[in-house]
Amino acid sequence: MPIRDIPMFIDGQPVMSQSQDWRDVVNPATQEVVARVPFCTADEVERAIASAEMSFKEWRKVPLGKRMRIMLKLQALIREHTPELAALITEEHGKTLPDAEGEVGRGLEVVEHACSITSLQLGELANNAANEVDVYTMHHPLGVGAGITAFNFPIMLPCFMFPLAIATGNTFVLKPSEQDPSSTMRLVELAHEAGIPAGVLNVVHGGPEVANQIADHQAIKALSFIGSSHVGSLLYNRAAAAGKRMQAMMGAKNHCVVMPDANRSQAIDSLLGSAFGAAGQRCMANSVVVLVGEAREWLDDIVEGARGMKVGPGTQRDADLGPLVSPQAKERVERLIGAGEKEGARLMVDGRGCSVDGYPEGNFVGPTLFADVTADMSIYREEIFGPVLCVVSVATLDDAMAFINANPNGNGTSIFTNSGWVARRFENDIDVGQIGINVPIPVPVAYFSFTGSRGSKLGDLGPNGKQAIAFWTQTKTVTARWFEPENVSSGINSTISLG
C-alpha cells in the first residue's frame, strides 16, 4: 500500500506543504507507516489564516438558509461515508471499527444540530420597551475562528468545532492531531463537497510552533482546544494575552460510583466498557470506580469481567479494545502500572505483556485493574489515558462524593443506582460538570453543551449546544426609536432615562 502524503487545505484546495519537517503516521496495530504529515511552515500557516480572513468578508453575508442547506448536505455525506471515515480512524488511531463508527455518529450529531442554525442564531426583541423604543439583539459572527484537536477522536472533535463556527458565519482554521489526520482531512473534503466555499475552512498541520502561532495571531478571534491540561493551559494564557476568546477542554479523572442497590450486571458491564473501550484513550473514560458499602463485594465479578475482555486490532469487530496510539503511549501506561505496584495498590489484573496473534508489533496493553487505590498514588493523580481501572472502596455515598469532589478535575462522573433519591442527591451535591445516572460516559447529545468543569476546563463556554452559539458569535444589542416625520422635539433630556 502506498504511503499517502497528507496535504494542507487552503483556499478550497488541497495544498502540499513545502516544509522540510514531515512525520510518519503509523498504524498502531502493525507499526506500518501509512501516511506522512507535514509540520507546516510559519508562512503556510499565515497563508491559511489570510485565506480565512479574506473569505469572512463574503461568508458572513451568506443567508442563514444557505448555510443551513450546506450543513444538511454535509450530514448526508457523513452518513454516506461513515464506513470510509471509520476505517481511516481505525487505521491510524487503533480503536475498533464499531467504536470508530460510533465516533462518526457522535460527530454527525453536531452537524445535524448545526442544520438548525436558522433557529439557533435568532435574536430577541422587546417591542416598546420604553416610549416608542424597541430593544433587540443580534448574534453576529466574530471573524476567523480556529480549532486544535487531540488524537483520540479525529472526527468527533473537529465536529465539535468547525460546523457550528461556520454555520454562525465565521471562517475557520483547523489544526488536527498529527498522529491520525487522514479521517479529519476526508471530513474536510466532504465539507467542501457539501458546498462550503473556498477559504471558509482551512487546515494546517504541526506541533507547538503552529499551535502558538494560531494562539498569538491577531486575525483569529476565537480558539477552541481539546487536549491535555498542560498544553491547554499554555494555549489559554497565550490566547488570552492576544485578546481572543478561548475554550479549552482538558484532562480528566472520571469516577463511576456504584451503589449496592444498582443492577449488578448492568453496572459492571457499563463500567468495564467505559474504562477499557478505545483502550482507555477517552477524556470521558471512567478510570476510577468507587464501590460504596456492600458493592465492594462485587470486586471479584469486576475482575472476572476485565480478564474476559478481548484485545485485538481495530479491524477485528469482536475485539473490545485495540492498541494504544503509539509505542510512547504504551511505554507510559506500563510505567504507571509499575508505579502503582510500587506505591502499594493491589494489582488484580495486569495488562502488560499483552500479545495478539498476528500482530507482534502492536501497541497492545490489556485491561488492567488495581484495587485498594488511594488518592496519593500516581495511578490516581495522573490521567493515565490507557486501559487501567482504579478501584476505590468507601462506606457511604457521602464518602464517595467527598472523595470525588476532592479531585481537582471535573470533566465527568456517573452513578449506578436504582434509587431516585440517591441519584438526585448525587447530581445536586457532586462538583462535576457532566453527570451520568446509570450512563457510564455522560457525553451529552450535541444540542446540549459540553460542560466539563474545574481543572478539566478553561473558559466560560463549552462546545456544542447553546454555549457554542454564544462562543462563536458576538451579541449586539440595539436600542432604537423612530420619530414621525413631523414630530417636534420635547426638549433636551439630560438624564439617563429613555423618556
From TrEMBL:
The keyword Transit peptide does not apply. The keyword Oxidoreductase applies. Residues 17-478 form the Aldehyde dehydrogenase domain. It holds the Pfam family Aldedh. Keywords: NAD, Oxidoreductase. Its EC number is 1.2.1.27. Transmembrane segments: none annotated. Belongs to the aldehyde dehydrogenase family. This is methylmalonate-semialdehyde dehydrogenase (CoA acylating).
